[in-house]
Amino acid sequence: MASLASRLMPPVLAVLGRKRRYANPQATLDQVAGDRLRPKAYGPPRRLSRDVHISVRDDGGWPVYDVVGKGGRPDRHAVYLHGGAWINEITGHHWRLIARLAAAGGTRIVVPIYPLAPQGTAATVVPRAAELLRGLAVEHGAEQVSVIGDSAGGQIALSAGLLLRREGIVLRRTVLISPALDLRLGNPEIDDVEPRDPWLARPGLREAIDLWRADLPLDDMRVSPLLTDLAGLGPLAVFSGTVDITYPDVRLLVSRAREAGVEVDFHEARGMVHVYPLLPIPEGRAARAAMAALLRS
Question: Cα–Cα distances in Å, from 2 out to 18, 192, 200, 242?
């Protein structure tokens, strides 16, 4: 049975107006304009876990953070690509998950602060994310490198992993949290889920998608990785709640990946909302523990 905290999450999200941001296309565009005028902070919270050490460097104009557990030097590495519909900055929820994975998963987490749409686009950000992963794979071996992404970051993560697969680089693991997978948003099952999703709606998301894809077609691998042959991809771990418009495409991903011979660890959470592993609910804590175990295993 779902916890009381998780059952309260939809009305809390409604009070916060999360869905209103995406139900109205103009509201989405107004948010983008407002954030360009007054950019949000992206650095880790001051009161982040004391179990990790954080440093930052510049990589071709991108701030890139390294988050390492204080228990010892990790021999595994992962790149975390944050979500936010390609137009929202990384948040404290992301940072707390990253710190937990670094400390409990025994993994160095590399966190690039990529430019948001419309300054950052699929044509520029996805290859740069692949470049970061490639550098880690060359330095440490691809068998020691994973990629993690939530929501829009899940799309970037999977697309980057598929670019590397073309080069014969197979990552140790790809961990996806409520990933956006087919930005056409045409799966008919979304029609049934969208009215129950307290967070996401297609009208505004389509505006964000158009800013993100820019001149690329919607079926380009850097935009909609679900439409690409998945054969040869390394192991996948996918976390998804069922009250989430990304869920229908997640089910397709799991099915198509398994048909292509990809190992898939699917964590399906009945009644959970979008990116539930990032939220302060019991089901989120259980998912975070499962991710840390996957990175350790």
Answer: 21, 21, 21, 12
